[in-house]
Design goal:
Blueprint: H1 5-17, E1 48-49, H2 54-62, E2 67-71, E3 74-76, E4 83-90, E5 103-104, E6 121-128, E7 135-137, E8 141-145, E9 151-153, E10 157-160, E11 164-169, E12 172-176, E13 180-181, E14 187-190, E15 193-198, E16 201-205, E17 210-212, E18 218-223, E19 226-228, E20 245-247, E21 252-257, E22 260-262, E23 270-271, E24 276-280, E25 283-294, E26 299-303, E27 306-317, E28 320-322, H3 327-330, H4 334-337, E29 345-347, H5 376-381
Parallel strand pairs: 1-2, 2-8, 3-9, 5-13, 7-10, 8-11, 9-12, 10-14, 11-15, 12-16, 14-17, 15-18, 16-19, 17-20, 18-21, 19-22, 20-23, 21-24, 22-25, 23-25, 24-26, 25-27, 26-28, 27-29
Antiparallel strand pairs: 4-6
The protein binds 2-acetamido-2-deoxy-beta-D-glucopyranose (2 copies).
Residues 378, 381-382, 387 line the site of one 2-acetamido-2-deoxy-beta-D-glucopyranose (NAG).
């Protein structure tokens, strides 16, 4: 048997950092990004290693060293920054029986600037402070989960301030003050380039599961993730999470492919800024409100997606939207996306609509994901953690 020097170095790095690893030396990013973030390398050839504690994880994420960081267990940040009790509000929209539903923390003055609506009430809220700000992630990082064991509890990730070339694969981010609007974002990207978010799961999040803020996040691929909206603190009083995906960057190109987005009731996604979005082969299931809320400025191609039990696939259409309306019309995609767009499919759902084509030329020369006929079972089976 022959061992390469690189494999030996990798195995020793892991054995130093992690105890009792069953799959010693086998960790690596799986596959490669397609679509806009194609070419992302994350930590590249840096040896993979397991942080021994939440504080070591925090320091490895934020430093200036190219790293492959393996989560082989739960990293629990709940309580690590203490709790806060202060005035928040019960927004006017929260008419849920028994004071259920989602109340709000007064971040961004949301409770006091009118956003909470006429009839909102000031109430005391107590929340976990760690949840409301994400762990800062620097450039050149791969953050990967081992099997289905990599869990980040109580705190999300923030890839911002120019951090570039980051891969987040196969981890579950959960329990960020789910009872409160503004309780925390699972994954925030704001001012970045080449980010690949693949095979992760998001659940029980107070605010957005994924948010691309107003800065320019450039090339981003979001693939094969599970957005699980099941919650006991629904802003819409029906067990479904309202605040799922928010894409309003100022120069963002986002590929959304193979994601399973279920039990949400709005903002799945909300779009705006001047985001160019390719939504392909995603599966929306059991959405009691809307999937797309297409704000002014965004440009969206939706193809090969499956909508099952989705009340309103498209809420407003202020931006440009090509909904792949018919096999004849879909040939127009070929010139810029290099394939004929695939039809979307709908079961017990509203309609999509949108035949804008003027913006399709903006896909020309970019890395564009391929499209298949959408299959709900294949997308569901292939998304989330422990599935690669
Ligand atoms: C990230 O990697 C690239 C390519 O190796 C390098 O040029 C850049 O300086 C790195 N950035 C940081 C912050 O280490
Ligand atoms: C489900 O996903 C696994 C990989 O996690 C794959 O091996 C299997 O073939 C898939 N099954 C179906 C029915 O798609």
């Amino acid at each position: 048997m022959k061992f390469s020097a690189a494999a030996f170095a990798l195995a020793s790095a892991i054995s130093v950092e992690g105890a009792a690893l069953g799959e010693r030396g086998t960790y690596s990013v799986k596959g490669a990004a397609e679509g806009f973030a194609k070419g992302v390398t994350g930590g590249g050839s840096a040896p993979c290693a397991v942080p021994s504690s939440p504080s070591q994880l925090k320091s490895w994420l934020g430093d200036n060293v190219a790293r492959c960081i393996v989560l082989d267990k739960e990293y629990n940040f709940k309580g690590s920054e203490g709790s806060v009790t202060e005035n928040g509000c019960r927004p006017a929209s929260n008419k849920c029986p028994g004071n259920g539903g989602q109340d709000a923390i007064n971040l961004a003055s949301w409770c006091t600037n009118g956003n909470a609506g006429v009839g909102s009430k000031t109430i005391k809220v107590t929340y976990d402070k760690a949840g409301i700000s994400g762990l800062l992630v620097g450039s050149n990082k791969s953050i990967i989960g081992a099997g289905n064991k990599g869990v980040l509890r109580g705190k999300g990730l923030r890839i911002a301030n120019g951090a570039k070339n980051v891969i987040v694969q196969n981890i579950h981010i959960t329990e960020l003050n789910p009872q409160f609007i503004w309780g925390g974002d699972a994954l925030a990207i704001d001012g970045s380039d080449q980010v690949w978010v693949d095979h992760n799961k998001f659940s029980l999040i107070g605010r957005q599961m994924l948010v691309l803020g107003n800065g320019a996040s450039n090339r981003v691929t979001v693939s094969n993730n599970e957005f699980d909206g099941v919650t006991s603190w629904s802003a819409t009083c029906d067990g479904h999470h309202y605040w799922a995906i928010y894409l309003t960057g100022s120069n963002d190109m986002v590929t959304l492919k193979g994601n399973y987005i279920h039990h949400t009731s709005g903002r799945s996604p909300k779009t705006g800024g001047n985001s160019l979005i390719h939504a392909v082969n995603n599966y929306w299931y059991a959405n009691t409100g809307h999937a797309f809320d297409n704000g002014a400025g965004s440009q969206i191609v939706a193809e090969g997606n499956v909508f099952q039990n989705v009340n309103t696939p498209l809420l407003e259409k202020k931006g440009s939207f090509f909904a792949s309306p018919s096999t004849g019309a879909n040939a127009v995609c070929s010139a810029s996306l290099k394939h004929t767009c695939q039809m979307n499919s709908f079961g017990s759902s509203g309609t999509l609509g949108g035949a804008d084509t003027g913006f399709l030329a903006n896909f020309a020369g970019k890395n564009v994901a391929t499209a298949q006929v959408g299959s709900a079972s294949a997308i569901q089976n292939g998304s989330g953690v422990g599935r690669i």
